[in-house]
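I have been asked to look over a protein record a colleague put together. Alongside the sequence sits a line of tokens, each denoting a local backbone shape. Please read both lines and tell me whether the tokens look consistent with the sequence. I do not need a full report, just your reasoning and any doubts. I have pasted the whole thing underneath without changing anything.
>
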Amino acid sequence: MSLATIPADALPQQAYAHTEDHDVNLTADRAHWRPIRGIGTGWVKPHAGTGLWTAPVTARRADGTPTDSAWLQWSRSEMDSDTSGLWLTEIWPTGDARLLLIDDQTQLAAIIDAYPAEPNPYVPHRNGGRYPDWEALAADGWDGVYLTDRGQWETRLPRGGPDLYGWDLESCLWLRPSYVVGRTVRSSVPSRAGAA
């Protein structure tokens, strides 16, 4: 079975959220890239602090700069987080970026079949501990994995087979730095944290 992909120019505009003190140049400079790492056995996400997570831009100013993202929306609605002090940095894939697509559970299963991580014995109740080998994907030249909103719902708590429970929202996991960093702007979305 071939793996589903999305062309770089079809990827929705992405941004990553961060605090004001984050040095965006570290993300833009390939010399500072934090290579993707697994956690020993398969897991739904790679090791924390490796790769880069982005989410689609959901609101823009008249000049096109992002003001909100799927990640900030999720943080406000699901975690009651104050996102008013966060910044957004645009991320654009390079034209030759190789991006895997997960729009349903069969596409996730195909990735796992092609790049299986060692099964995680602590999650046999859901999927036999089967997850992608994130490091192997990067080593084989895959630049990112894009999970659509539909894919997120289909892989959240399936009745059987592999899952991505914990990704929580439409997002892109960058396995390699095959992107260009754009503008960085302060999120202009007011906080809903503590709202009645």
